[in-house]
Model the fold of this input.
Amino acid sequence: MQFDIEMFVGALILPNLLVVGIFLFKRLMVWNPESHEVLQLRFGKLRDRVTEPGLVGATRLVPQDRWITVSRQWDERIFKRIETNDSQGTMVQVDLRVTFRILDGEKALFAVHDWEQALESATVHEAAARLAGKDRALFLRSDPSLSEALTTSLKHTMAAYGIEIHDARILNVEFRPEVARQMFEAVAAKLEVAKAEYEEKGRTDAALLVARTEQQVAELEARAKTEGLKAVGRAYQELRERPEIFEAYTDLYRLSQLDPSRIVSFDGFDGGELTTGALVESDLELDELNGHGAAPKKMPRPGAGLALPRLSEP
Done:
């Protein structure tokens, strides 16, 4: 087998060329993501800055050249238990959420030693200064005016460090335990007073509603009675126009006024009982006998040969 020197040399040179190409590409080009900024440092000094996104040509020939990528996207930090005082001198602890972004990477890296530490210090200082002496009610309801005042102050302070502040909002407010207990007791007392007032108002409204309802019912009943009398009068007027119906109605009405429990009516004799004619004849015979001086004839006892008339109760 014959050794091919040219193939051997090519096999050695090709990897070296690839390595050199990659090295030159990384030295002559830089990749800048969207919403980022790339700073080129040479011997610790800012030499160039790239703000356009994408692949950008740049020279990095000496080993001391260094690229720093700075994010310019919005970010937030939460700072808890920042102490301040309200208008009554009571200590208040607040939790703040600060939304920000790096507007100038050069100032953020070189104008301050640590921009995150500067942001925390400025937030604590401005919160203690701007929120001090405010009314307690503003803290309890997290009034927007407190956040607006704090945001304005932080914007002015952090602009010198290349940091743009979007807003600073109050997330939580805490008071000392004894102060919180007093506040809860005061709120409970107010709720009891409001409850008593509403209950009394409810009772008064209910009584007024009942009185108005009774008044309306009385008015309706009086109107109904009046209308009923008017209707009866019209009915009597129509009956008078027909005398036979009016007389029949009058008789029925008179009979309806009688008490059935106190009335006994005679319906006459049944068959085989003493009739009215026989009773009259017996009376005449008795009178004749008495007129001739004869002894009076003894009348039969009831039930002994004489039938009594049948009485009926309606």
Remarks:
- Strands lie at 29-32, 36-42, 45-50, 54-57, 65-71, 75-85, 91-102, 163-175, 265-266, 311-312.
